[in-house]
Write a structure and sequence with these properties.
The protein has four helices and no strands. It is mainly alpha-helical and 142 residues long. The protein has one domain. The two termini are 24 Å apart.
Length: 142
Amino acid sequence: MMSTVPPERPWGIHPFQAVMLAGALSLFVGTLLADWAYWSSYQIEWSNFASWLLAGALVLAAVALVLALFELFRAAYRRGSRLVYVLVLAATWLLGFCNALHHARDAWAIMPAALVLSVIVAVLACVATWIGFSSLRAGGVR
């Protein structure tokens, strides 16, 4: 008699969560580019663009974070790598929120701290996206 053991399924993120995560990453990078453009030209429109891009990024990142928390508490397997993903995504959102509060100041008063915060948030968003999407390839092809 042959016994079969189901293979351990790698935890992949849901496609909707992947879209939210990728959208947040692009908006966080857009915020960084708008802050850099404002830093180099001091045209106030770039500060406004950065604020709006940051608001959109925070909405998408919040949806991705809520979905990641649901997945963290729902699944019992591979909890360690999910926890790292959730922590990096939460740190991205929290620092992005601090960046949004900083962007709410007068346009002349936000530099250079807004640019530094945008760089940190964009890097954290890249790391969170890397961790989230690298789980889709875990386990190899079958």
